[in-house]
């Protein structure tokens, strides 16, 4: 009888572990599928999924958390690019025109960082009677960030720009612009299902 009890106890414990593991795998799959399906609302779905899939357990199935995470990832990318451009602008190998374009771009990225930070702050306050005001602010700021990024890349146009610097900087800014575009699409999607 005691052996039968131990067998049943071990069997039930093992069964509970298997069920818990399967539920965890199912939840992870559901969260990842949610991220993937939500990314279809963006212009750059592959970039969206690549940048947000690692956050699936945090996002779960929340459009608001997903939009918030997209803003944070965009902010981190913009910060890193801005810091890189500050270092690059002090290089003695750049022409005065390239240094000027680089500094202008850093200024535009500073505006982008401010707009993204304000948007992230207001995402945390979205609720109740002020929802529509905050959402309009967020949409406006993220749209303005896209404009800043576009203005930055325009400074690198022209034949007098070093091809390598031009391609490198424009490539980095393009990634930020695509991340920003995706964040705005996710914000707009959240607004459409919330409002």
Automatic annotation (TrEMBL):
GO molecular function terms attached to this record: pectinesterase inhibitor activity
Pectinesterase inhibitor domain sequence ranges: 30-186
Sorted UniProt keywords: Signal
Pfam families on file: PMEI
UniProt key word Signal: yes
Signal peptide feature range: 1-27
Record-linked PANTHER family: PECTINESTERASE INHIBITOR-LIKE (PTHR31080), PLANT INVERTASE_PECTIN METHYLESTERASE INHIBITOR SUPERFAMILY PROTEIN (PTHR31080:SF117)
UniProt similarity note: Belongs to the PMEI family.
Name recorded for this polypeptide: Pectinesterase inhibitor domain-containing protein
Organism lineage: Eukaryota, Viridiplantae, Streptophyta, Embryophyta, Tracheophyta
